[in-house]
Design brief:
Layout lengths: L1 H23 L5 E5 L6 H17 L3 E5 L6 H8 L7 E5 L2 H8 L11 E16 L8 H10 L5 E4 L5 H13 L4 E4 L3 H9 L5 E5 H9 L4 E5 L25 E9 L4 H16 L1 H9 L3 E2 L7 H22 L5
Parallel strand pairs: 1-2, 1-3, 5-6, 5-7
Antiparallel strand pairs: 3-9, 4-7, 4-8, 4-9, 4-10
Length: about 325
């Protein structure tokens, strides 16, 4: 009996200690895992967010880039990590397209994570190298259709937002162009500005500076409303490509089984960031929109993720794009 009581007491002590550890979280550096190369749009957003999370959590939040396999490498790392909240995944629309793109996806976006909430929406821009002849959208579409066998379109890799946007644009104008994948948006943008590729469809967090500096040509924004920081650029919708809309949403995830006190603290940290005028302003300058508080919740992220999986699955399957 004494031995049994000792065992029960030991188990209870471990439970209390574990609960205490969760309550005290974080006690050391936290990693914000970015599934793409440094310098890309998700990386830019993550670095802005990490600064604000550091203030709230009172522990250093560092950005860690784990590029590869269209973002699924990093997602799998977090899915398989210790469920303690010290490895957080910031992932974009790719979480909803991966199930259709990959035949052997090593994780399930809907069952292998705990969800913190959505962070921001990022419009995209249709851009080209400066030496491309057309100077307006109408002439651009005519030129692309006439030269589709000679042109190419860069992207940040299979399944990246830039890849998906490009596929959708090509299908809408009925012109199939060669696509060239890179290891991240940063390298793809460098190739475009270096005249190694002709076209690209990329997030405003990565293109705004280049557009404003005249280092690329721009033919339209992919959202229904114009981007405040790029008010001079009309949307593709208002230029005749009706109902064309692609916005890249981002969410925060941690490993399944992460304790609720940790999830609650991370959600409170996210809410503090999106309510911070400085954070919202920093995103607005990049052409991005911090979400409203009702979207920065686990419930909203799960609901949106499910809807996006249902939306993109048929489009990807119709395009016949797959990865092993």
């Amino acid at each position: 009996m004494l031995r049994l009581i000792s065992i029960i007491a030991a188990i209870a002590a471990v439970g209390v200690a574990g609960g205490g550890a969760a309550q005290d979280y974080p006690t050391r550096t936290v990693s914000l895992i970015v599934p793409f190369a440094a310098g890309g749009p998700t990386d830019t957003l993550a670095r802005n967010l990490a600064q604000h999370m550091t203030k709230t959590l009172k522990q250093q939040v560092i950005v860690e880039n784990r590029a590869g396999a269209g973002g699924t490498l990093a997602a799998n790392v977090v899915a398989k990590s210790k469920p303690d909240g010290y490895q957080i995944l910031i992932a974009h629309i790719g979480m909803s397209t991966a199930p259709a793109l990959y035949r052997k996806l090593p994780f399930n976006p809907l069952t292998d994570f705990e969800y913190i909430g959505q962070v921001a929406d990022v419009p995209m821009t249709l851009i080209a190298r400066t030496g491309l002849p057309p100077d307006n959208y109408k002439d651009f579409v005519t030129y692309v259709k006439a030269n589709k066998d000679k042109l190419n379109m860069g992207n940040a890799g299979l399944g990246a937002a830039s890849h998906l946007c490009g596929l959708l644009f090509m299908s809408r104008i009925e012109a199939n162009i060669q696509t060239i994948p890179y290891q991240g948006t940063g390298p793809a943008m460098a190739a475009l500005m270096g005249n190694q590729v002709d076209l690209m469809c990329d997030q405003t967090t990565n293109t705004t500076g280049a557009i404003q500096a005249g280092r690329v040509k721009v033919f339209g924004v992919t959202t229904r409303k114009r981007v405040p920081s790029l008010q001079f650029i009309p949307t593709l919708h208002e230029q005749g490509l009706k109902d064309f809309e692609v916005a890249v949403w981002h969410g925060l995830y941690v490993a399944k089984g992460t304790p609720k006190p940790v999830l609650d603290k991370l959600n409170a940290t996210l809410l503090a960031a999106i309510k911070d005028p400085q954070f919202r302003e920093s995103l607005a300058k990049l052409g991005a929109d911090a979400v409203t508080p009702d979207r920065a919740t686990p419930e909203s992220l799960v609901k949106h993720l499910k809807a996006e999986i249902e939306k993109w699955g048929p489009i990807i399957k119709k395009a016949g794009v797959y990865a092993d």
